[in-house]
Amino acid sequence: MTGWLPELTVAILATVLAITLHEAAHGYAALALGDDTAQRHGRLSLNPLRHVDPVGTILLPAILLLVQLVTIGRVEAMFGWAKPVPVDIRRLRDPRSGMALVAAAGPAMNVFLAWCAAMLAHPLESASGVLPPDLVALGVRFIVLSILANLLLGLFNLLPIPPLDGGRILVGLLPAPLALGLARLERAGLLIVLLLIFVLPRLSPSLDILGWLVDLVSGPGFNLILRLAGHGT
Asked: Is 23 one of the annotated active-site residues of the chain?
């Protein structure tokens, strides 16, 4: 088990940072646009503990980590969520466009974090001659997992289904009648997302949306981030 601990540690760190900073970005964007609800509830924080959801941040990622480490000996993919930051759309200066910007802040933060992780490879490469090989390998693993976790979380949240960020962005951009109809889906949004992830792939492999996102993130998305950070593919 102890041989898994370094891998487990960097995987947890990469995942928790991706999830919690995604939520913090929503809160800071809302504050900038006039809503101080997150601040008043003590959720306007970069402290990951403020955003921890017992199931989405701890239990589910831990199960995924252990299953992958036991079955294939490494971590290839992660999934989870944090406690949503409270946003009161009525307090935003322009409720519709403001909510779209607040929603977009989360995925934008994830893309930025993926780029930051890729940039870390430059100093790591420079120090590789003096650092122990095991430490360098662990640093590389953290960078890879950070890029994958952030891109997957950001893209997944851009699916156009409320309450995911993509659905809320669409509600802010569509004409009022269409926006109202889409907003009504929010009550059933979580059920729709679960059906998309767990039921549709069983009906047909071509309907595996999460698998498609993983392929996109681990291929073209990963290479794009590397290029933007000044690396080759």
From this structure: yes
